[in-house]
Amino acid sequence: MTESSELPESTATLVAQPLRDVERDGVRYTILGTAHVSQASVDAVHAQIAAHDFDAVAIELCESRYQSMRDPDALAKLDLIRVIRDGKVGLVAANLALAGYQRRLSEQLGVEPGAEMKAAWQLAEASNTPVWRIDRDVATTLKRTSAAVGFWDRMMLMSGVLASLIVDDEVGKEDIERLKEGDMLESTFGEFARKRESLYRALIAERDEYMAAALRQQTAATADIRHVLVVIGAGHLAGLSQHLQTDQDAPASIQERLSVLPPSKPWGTWITLALTALVLGGFAYGFSKGVDIGGTVLLQWVLVTGSLGALGCLAAGGHPLSIVGAFLASPVTPLHPALASGTVSALIELWLRKPTVADFHALRDDVGSMGGWWRNRVSRVLLNFFLTSMGTAIGVYIAGWQMIKALF
Questions:
Q1: Taking a C-beta distance cutoff of 8 angstroms, is the pair 98, 184 a contact?
Q2: Cα 213 from Cα 305, distance rounded (Å)
Q3: Strand, coil or helix: what is 29?
Q4: Domain ranges of the chain
Q5: pTM of structure
Q6: What are phi and psi for residue 177, nearest 5 degrees?
Q7: Which of 85, 211, 262, 348 has its CA 20 to 30 A from that of 39?
């Protein structure tokens, strides 16, 4: 296994991005580190493919992100009811946050984020060269990222994603410079991701290892592969090169290990059970001290949790009946997860204000601005779920504290 940074002068003149050659098992990998928001990166891809006869082109995309870039109208096929019922609202919202971030970058810089990846696969297809999607599935990455941090860090992470949903400020120059040296997912989560080693590992380091294994596996499975162009973000260049040279475990075992979702933490279930027991026990204890006290405790619980859940729905621009649904469901949310206030209000909103075909087609553009999230009926359903759930959670803590003070 050898590594070289030496390039012919003519090629080096054309390439404005970092480049490494890694050789392993008789295969030469030309690894091009790109900036996802740079025309120079697009030019570098064109220059490399024009200068060499590659047997395959590998790109830093998973299959789902690849299909999303190939078919921008794929969002029109989104089944919102299934998204809500399957508990995938957070995943969809995170993907939309990424799309909105990319849209702002595109408008600000005049270059579509990921244009170099698009150029790579289009040029490869034009010459009948195989295109390999080597990145880990984005859903797996986001789930492992969430599982890598504690409860409060996860809340901060979710709040950061939520903030990116509704803020349409220009992307700062410092963020753009970091993106030129880093990774799109890392940049979307911002400074918080850079300060957490656990997040960095899930977002960047694990993917370096995964992509190196994917390259080795694809090469072994494909005959007559001698030279591969690998187009990745510059932030992955060093890590991927190192893993490609040194990793000895079977590629399939590495990919399997890095794709397994961590088991659910049992403390989440215990907290839910404890909260249910405390609430029901509080009601029982209140009524044991008298109907007046029990009735007061129950009324406070209903009014506080219901009002704050309804307020969250109102903030999301919910329909009046969605707000009523949020008010009625919020008091029982801690007692019956199937009746979660966010789910109830979002489903009512979806039923009363069915998104049109135009809403789905405009979704990609609308999520790039704050007003668009409220204007588009698809994204407004997701906001309804988040803000109603947030209001209910705040209400539960306030009402619980009031219950303790009233009883003791």
A1: yes
A2: 49
A3: strand
A4: 2-259, 266-407
A5: 0.70
A6: -65, -40
A7: 211
